[in-house]
Amino acid sequence: MNNKLDINLIRNDFPILKEVINGKQLVYLDNAATTQKPQLVLDALTGYYEHYNANIHRGIHQLAEKATAAFEESRLRLQKFINAPSAEEVILTYGTTDGINLVAQTYGRSFIKEGDEIIISTMEHHSNIVPWQMLCEEKGCVLRVIPINDQGELLMDEFEKLLSERTKFVSVVHVSNALGTINPVKEIISKAHAVGAKVLLDGAQASSHLHLDVQDLDCDFYTLSLHKIYGPTGMGILYGKRALLDAMPPYRGGGEMIKEVTFAKTTYNELPYKFEAGTPNIADVVAAKYALDYVDLLGKENIASHENDLLEYATAALKEIDGLRIIGEAKEKVSVVSFVMNGIHHQDIGVILDQHGIAVRTGHHCTQPLMNRFNITGTTRASFAVYNTIEEVDLLIKGLHKVKKMLG
Ligand code: PLP
C-alpha cells in the first residue's frame, strides 16, 4: 500500500464525503463521471463571487483587473499542467465535449472534404463519435473505427491497416471511461503523422491519472474537463498546435473573439481569444487553478499509486464473486472497473448499492457502440479517486454479495 499519502487527512479536504445517504455514510465510487471537490476549490469559487466578481478583459476598475489576472493565471497553470509550449495555445472551453466539437466544426469543416477519412476507435465516448458523424454527414467524409480485443485493447495492426493517404484525422480517447484502458497514444500519433493525418486526444479520463505532456506526445489537439480532476464543472481546455489554431476559422461569434467589427466586415482576435466568444465561466476557470495546485500538492504519482492499489484490490475481490465478469482487462489500466453479473440487470445493482450509500455508475457510460461490441446493454462501473479507501472497496464487495442474495 502507498504510505506517502494520509488518505484520512485527504478525506477531510472533501466536505461532501461526510454526507449520509439512505442512513449510510456515502461511499462515492463514481469518480469517472465526476470527482468531488476539495475545500480549497469551493473556497476559490465563493471567494471570487464574494470579493472580485467582475467581467474580464474589458474593465478598467479594480475588480475587473483582479478577475482578469486570476483568470489568466489559471490559463498559465493549465498550460503548465499539460506542458503546452505557450498560453495562447490553451483555449478555455466548457469541457471535453466542447473542445471536440470546436475542432470538428472549425478544423474539420475547413480542412476535411468529401472522401477523406477520419479514424476513431470502438471505445470512444459519444462525444468523440457524434461530432465526427455530424461532420461526415455535412462533408461526405468517411468514419473508420479501430476494433478492440476481448480485453478492451485497441488492435494496433488493424489501426495500421486503416491508415492511408485518405486519412486526414485521427481522434481517439487517451483513457477509456468505460474500461479504464490506457491507449498507446504515442504510437497512434506517430503512425497517423506518418500518413499526414492530424491527431486529437480525448483526455477526459487521462487527466486525473496520468502525467500529461502534449509536447512529448506531439498530439495536434488535446482536450479535457476540469471536473474530472477535482475541479469545477462546465470548464475545460482545448490545446492545439499554434499553426493549426491560427489556420482555423473561429468557432462561435460574439464579444471577445473580435478585433474590429463593422457592418461590412469583422476581423478576429488573436489566440486564444479568437475561440473564446462571450463571457466565460470566470469563477470556474479561476477555481481550476486550485484543483491543479491540490493535485500537485499530493503528487500525481502518489495519487496514481494509491488508485492502482485500490484497482488491484478491487479487481481481485470482484473476481472472487461467482457469476461476475469484468469488462475491460487491459494490461495498461487506470482505476476504473466495469463488470456485469449473471442474470442481474446493472440498474438493479446500482439501485441496491445506492440503498447502502454506495454510488456507482450503471448503464452504457455514453459508449453504446462499445457495449454493442461486448454484446451487453451496460455495466456497473466503480471508479476510484485519491480519497477512496480499501474499506470502501470492502463495502462495495459486501454490497454486491447482498445484491446476489436478493436477485441472483
Ligand atoms: N470523453 C470521455 C472519455 C469521458 O469520460 C467524458 C465524460 O464522461 C467525456 C468525453 C465528456 O466530458 P464532458 O461531459 O466533461 O464534456
Task: Write up this protein.
This protein has 408 residues and is an alpha/beta fold. It is 40% helix and 17% strand. The chain contains 14 helices and 17 strands. Helix 2 packs antiparallel against helix 10 (282-298) and helix 11 (300-319) runs parallel beside helix 14. The two termini are 33 Å apart. Bound molecules: pyridoxal-5'-phosphate. Pyridoxal-5'-phosphate is lined by residues 95-97, 125, 127-128, 173, 177, 202, 204-205, 225.
Question: What fraction of residues sit in β-strands?
Answer: 15-25%
Q: List low-pLDDT spans.
A: none
In this entry the ligands are: pyridoxal-5'-phosphate
The CATH homologous superfamily name of the largest domain equals Type I PLP-dependent aspartate aminotransferase-like (Major domain)
Compute the CA-based radius of gyration.
Answer: 22 Å
Shape: globular
User: How many beta-strand runs?
Assistant: 17
Number of helices: 14
Question: Considering DSSP H and I runs of 4 or more, what fraction of the residues is helical?
Answer: 40-55%
CATH architectural grouping of the largest domain? 3-Layer(aba) Sandwich
